[in-house]
Amino acid sequence: MELTEEQFLEIEPFLPTPCGKVTHDTRTVLNGILYVLENGCKWRSLPKIYGIWHTVYARMNRLAKNGILQKIFQHFARKQINVARPVHVSLDTTSIKVSPDATGAFKKKAPRP
């Protein structure tokens, strides 16, 4: 899942112009953000083609705090373009074995003399 050139041109007006030393263009960084969203991986597991994970995370954090990411996703929602599609959902459950007393089971009667 990556942004096409047409999709990027649609959202480019929402994006601020990068300042300072920029090693990767904004489209590559956004594709890195979408990669993490789609795959649910850790930032440190981000492939190198998207740049240094910390740079991508910092730019995502800045875009999110300024409300820009929300505007971008709302724009795609209005156009009914599904950029991030969750395919799998997993639930983590833990089973703990307890004594029958803890589950509300009837207790045995007192032993007979």
Question: What portion of residues belong to β-strands?
Answer: under 5%
- CA-based gyration radius: 24 Å
Helix and strand succession? HHHH
* Count of DSSP-assigned helices: 4
Average of the residue pLDDT scores: 80
| Distance between the amino and carboxyl termini | 74 Å
Shape field: elongated
Briefly say what this structure is.
The protein has 113 residues and is mainly alpha-helical.
Describe the structure.
The structure is a single chain. With 113 residues, the chain is mainly alpha-helical. The chain contains 4 helices and no strands. It has a domain at 1-6 and 25-83. Helix 2 (26-39) crosses helix 3 (53-65).
Descriptive key words:
113 residues, mainly alpha, 0% strand, elongated, 40% helix
Secondary structure blueprint with pairings:
Elements: H1 5-11, H2 26-39, H3 53-65, H4 68-78
Helix pairs in contact: 2-3
